[in-house]
Amino acid sequence: MHNNSLPQHLAIIMDGNGRWAARQGQPRGLGHRAGRKALREIVEHVSGLGIPILTVFAFSSENWQRPTAEVQLLLELFKRALNREVRELHTNNIGIRFIGDRSRFSTKLQNKMREAELLTANNDSLQLNIAVNYGGRWDITQAARQLALKVATGELQPEQIDEAAFSKEISLADGTAPDLLIRTGGEQRISNFLLWQLAYCEIYFTDTLWPDFNAENLNLALLEYSRRQRRFGSTPLQAAERAQSV
Ligand code: IPE
Ligand code: IPE
Ligand code: MG
After folding, report:
1. Is the per-residue pLDDT at 151 higher than 90?
2. Between the N and C ends of the chain, which has fewer C-beta atoms within 10 Å?
């Protein structure tokens, strides 16, 4: 595969853990544990392929609605991952960043997140963004609030609020927007993931449940991506000409 046909930023909605467990007559928690393992394998593969940015949806702002026991378990697994996996990611030169509203997490958890980010801040083999308590509408709202604050302090004029100014306040502002979004688990929706950032993203849906999603499945998605023609509003001919010139 040519390097320029690889996405520079891959985003994944890791869905289907609960159904994966239910199929085996097991509690949903087992699926979440298996999902963590799947993520490890995918991170390794993505890093090996040389894709520079990976953003994964781990917990949405709506997932708090789940039964308390399941939310507790997800938080526990998150804590465990922070305690056990950060060092290895650091050794592999992977930078970790969290996006989402952290204020709902305990101070201890927030500190662990901050520590992981600081420890890995200068790593550059892969940028791993983990969306926790993330919602696309929250993201757009918080960006609007930042802009309003700047207007209130006189730092910015209302006329200066354009797409570029807005893009600076939204999560992942310093990277490129995702080129490819993969959603596992068979549902064909965005579920309040990156709304602003996905405007021109290619989307790939697969029925494979997240715990079963492996390097081979990822390669299939990447192959499909390499065959897509991204036009960004232009004609097929213009898009083909542009693709040739890069
Ligand atoms: C994704 O799997 C993990 C989270 C949303 C935290 P689900 O838990 O949504 O699994 P299904 O969709 O119910 O199978
Ligand atoms: C989306 O999955 C969120 C994550 C994968 C973290 P959900 O399972 O929460 O999405 P819906 O409820 O099916 O839309
Ligand atoms: Mg789900």
Report:
1. yes
2. C
